[in-house]
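ENTRY TYPE: paired fold submission
RECORD: A
CONTENT: sequence, then structure tokens
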Amino acid sequence: MRTLFALAFILALTSCSGVGRAPVEEKSAGSILTGKDTQGINLLELGETSNSETGLPINALLWRASLDIASSIPLDDIDTFGGTIVTEWYQLDENNEERIKLAIFVLDRELRSDGIRVVVYVQKRDGSDWRDEGTDSEMGLRLEELILTRAREIRAGTVSETN
């Protein structure tokens, strides 16, 4: 009797394993800063070679133009595959009581106006310390326009070289 009960119990457990289960959809975690999906590496596919995507996951013209524009300020962090450039704090004038830090995000593979975002952080001197003043969105928009103009110049230069 005990064996029959144990066999019935095991049979009942195994027959219910797939009932009413919806398939689980995997969602990739997106970047908090840029909002785009992450382009990470699956550890299970580490040894395999894949030709599905080659090159940079961002627009090369916007990337090069961003580096050109930001090159006058010392760079702190560069992430080619994430499309981010962060500069160190920089004083525009030596006697100025204000300094800025740039965070440049290349967001797309296309050369479009919404493919670039620049955040300009501002600090003001408070005695011997620096106090955060927030961001300067106007300067950020001007730098975005400069980067887009430089990217168009680079593209025009490469087109004329190939003709």
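RECORD: B
CONTENT: sequence, then structure tokens
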Amino acid sequence: MRVRVIFKLKNKGAYLPFHHQYILAQFIKGLMVKGRDSKFINYPFYNFSGLKGQTRISRNGLQYFSSLVTLVLSASDQDFIDYILEQIFEFEEFRLGNLDLEPLSTELEDIPEFSSEMKFLCISPVVALKSDFGSNESKKFVQPFADEFSDLLYESTMERMEATGKYSPEKLASFSKFQVVPDAAYLNRLKERDKKFARIYSVFDMDVKYEIRGYTLPFKLHAAQEVQQFIFNCGLGHYTHKGFGMLDIANADPTERTTTYTFNRIKKVV
């Protein structure tokens, strides 16, 4: 499921870095610890967007000028979503980077109809290679049209699905069909304009900074419906719990697919 968390921006003109996923990742991790529920403190099967609002590019990053900003939070476990929302709404206001935010409301996104062929857009970069300390392997460029690109994303997806404990070995084995087909016309247009779809980003894990390559491009995914749903809820590739690999359905109107969401209060376990 996916929810949108709407905040009031109390200091218009404040800014965040262009890619501020690490700030959001630290904030969400802090919420996980703050709730003191051992079930969720190390929960990894979630994903989130950047902070959305009316922005303009400045020397210091993205300046926010809208009175409201939105964070999209996604996971396959409703209890986890409700747990995080409960922690957020215990704040009257808080500071995120340079932004002073007041939690206002939550909206539930409608669940799309999944099929064996879906066209996705990247809300945040997809990471195909996991980083290892002292290695530059994660910065290697992998051609998105190559089988290696699909294979890497397939392997990371199956590993995460297996780690949920919700799929039997036989079920996982049935998910052998998996092919990423990038939008060639889109990539050609970028090439003509001398723009990039793959860049190096920083990610922090156990207080260690790593550099990874992320890809932002539209593509079709041929995979089982359950795989499509898992990716939509939990992201694609590595570091999804740090804000990478969030996808959205292509050609969907985001303004027409939400309802008000009232989250459940979770009993805290110490």
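NOTES ON RECORD B: The longest strand covers residues 99-109. Helices lie at 21-34, 78-88, 147-163, 169-173, 184-192, 225-234.
STATUS: closed
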